[in-house]
Design brief:
single chain, 120 residues, alpha/beta, five-stranded parallel beta sheet, 4 helices
Length: 120
């Protein structure tokens, strides 16, 4: 399973990369959401996991953009966040996008999100 991880370059990005690799996934990391759009369209990854908060576009913006285009509409997408799931920022998030919480719930949320999206 190939995962496109979209997060700014920082220590937590490396931790998420290692966690995903530990699950047996091949991880390609993009630090810029605009570059991630191109990578997603060109490579059709099995999963896109994006941070909710980024500088140029948020992960929510990225999810909306990819879902709006026929070429990427069906790419499985999850959003990584430390925000409360009821936060107002998620009002525009497509309802098909599972939230993955950072920290101790990461593994449980990831497993649930993978099951929801049908990725094994």
């Amino acid at each position: 399973v190939e995962v496109l991880l979209v997060m700014p370059r920082c220590t937590s990005t490396r931790i998420v990369e290692l966690e995903l690799q530990g699950c047996g996934f091949r991880v390609v990391t993009e630090t810029e959401p605009f570059n991630a759009i191109e990578t997603a369209v060109r490579t059709s990854p099995d999963l896109i996991l994006a941070a909710a908060v980024m500088e140029t576009l948020s992960g929510i913006d990225l999810a909306c953009a990819l879902q709006a285009m026929p070429i990427s509409r069906d790419l499985p997408f999850m959003l990584l966040t430390s925000l409360d799931p009821e936060h107002a920022a998620f009002a525009d998030l497509p309802h098909t996008v599972p939230l993955i919480r950072r920290g101790e719930k990461f593994s449980d949320d990831l497993a649930l999100g993978l099951a929801i999206l049908g990725i094994t």
